[in-house]
Amino acid sequence: MQGRASVPADSGRPGAAGTPVPPLDPGLVQRFGLIFSRCPYGFDQPAVYHQAGFMHLNSQTMGALLENGYRRNGNHMYTMHCPGCRGCVSIRLDPAQFRPNRNQKRVWRKNQDIVVQPGPLLMSREHLSLLDKFLRIRFHNQDSQAESYYSQFFLTTISPCFELRYWADGVLVGVAIVDATPEWLNAVYFYFDPDQGWRSPGTFNILNLVHFCRQHGIPKLYLGYCIEGLLAMAYKKAFRPHELLLQGQWRRIA
């Protein structure tokens, strides 16, 4: 087990002032309750989810929740209210302002053989086989099944959702599941072939999401949480400039 998470420290230059987050509608907030569980990121303290289930959310409400740091899990929206821990910090990009560093340019070049195919969510044999392999190798200590991920998480969507399939030589090597409107894109989940780790698939996926947003004029790209001390999420901070949601304000890190 890991120790307690902390707010991400960042060696970049913070912006002069943060952008305050508009408050949520009180009627919407009343729908949420607290769910207690073990920490999904392996820290040795209980997790507390501020969570609510929905049948459908319009793009304006979904956008407001994302701006307030909420994440989507199936037909639920949640944020973390863990006592004594502020480790789950939301991170987002302005795709138009992003400038790749040397390593990100290298990752983009070495993945030029990848064919990207947008499309509706599928639960094909190829998808399930790839996700099973990903879960078995990346999360070998958890009893996770690909079919349950799709039936309980991916396919129970409450907002406009689709996937980006990554193919190499006709073989499915990655799938990015995203929510999107003309105002924002939300990275929901990404899984890939662990044997393709040499491609830096997590970095390539975000680069491709930035590319997609630029193509479609989408001004906000939400990347989920950036958690200090969690190596699997550290690569997100390399995308600059980015914004972190700290104390109710989106603060720009150059």
TrEMBL record:
One of its GO terms (cellular component) is cytoplasm. It comes from the Bacteria. Residues 1-23 are annotated as: Disordered. Keywords: Acyltransferase, Cytoplasm, Transferase. Residues 38-106 form the N-end aminoacyl transferase N-terminal domain. One of its GO terms (biological process) is ubiquitin-dependent protein catabolic process via the N-end rule pathway. GO terms for molecular function: arginyl-tRNA--protein transferase activity; leucyl-tRNA--protein transferase activity. Pfam families: ATE_C, ATE_N. Residues 126-245 form the N-end rule aminoacyl transferase C-terminal domain. NCBIfam families: PRK01305.2-3. This is Arginyltransferase. It comes from Desulfobulbus oralis.
